[in-house]
Amino acid sequence: MEFCRLGVNIDHVATVRNARGGHVPDPIRAAQLAEAAGADGITAHLREDRRHIRDLDIDRLMATLNVPLNFEMAATPEMLAIALKHRPHACCLVPEKREERTTEGGLDVLSQRDHLRPMIEALNAAGSRVSLFIEADPDQITASAELGARVVELHTGSYCEAFVEHNALKADHELSKIREGARLAAAAGLEVHAGHGLTYDSVKPIAAIPEIKELNIGHFLIGEAIFVGLDVAIARMRQLIDEARQG
Ligand code: PXP
Fold first, then answer.
1. In this predicted structure, what is the pLDDT of residue 100?
2. Mean confidence (pLDDT) of the chain
3. Ligand 1 mean position to 197 CA, how many Å?
4. Which of 102, 134, 164 most suits a substitution to test ligand 1, by most atoms within 8 Å of the C-beta?
């Protein structure tokens, strides 16, 4: 099976930094370590409230990274202007609510077509690959393809939640939806990514889906890095993904 890329989300290194208001730990140092440990890309989400990643972090990532930056952003004029200034390799459009702790649910592409279309066109024209973070829902997938996105990232949150709750029935059901969604999206010409909530325990069934070309993983890896180091955590995740690809 084809190689599956691993994108490492460094947001929560910035969360720890911001807890004390200083400069450490530095998320750019984490990105460089992740790159050296074999990450195929770095993901960073500049939220409206700048609760973790800040504007200067994006400037520094753009200046220093040798692997692609996947810039996660809400579909707002402010974020569009920042993305167009930097022209990162990829822009992943996500829903964003001020009161949420993390991105809850996928983007409702279907009901926001008119809002999203010009943004996707502008980002495409600037040379950034647009990825839409959506639930594995056939209507959302079809709408994403119609709008000219190149990539969809399928939300694995519900699957991972079921996994944590040891609810095998629900995990299987969610996994089937992601499998079907990946098939449908690839058939519609979209590149398929996935992510949210993945851990060593839950990653393999997702990584075994052949249409999925990239997994984006953050919180678990940064947490694990506290105990074993980022390089060891990434190497272990990489190994599990590779094992799943080998079947
Ligand atoms: N992909 C997207 C689009 C996300 O919003 C997030 C969380 O910021 C992730 C992947 C990574 O999720 P986690 O931090 O739970 O691994």
1. 73
2. 97
3. 7
4. 102
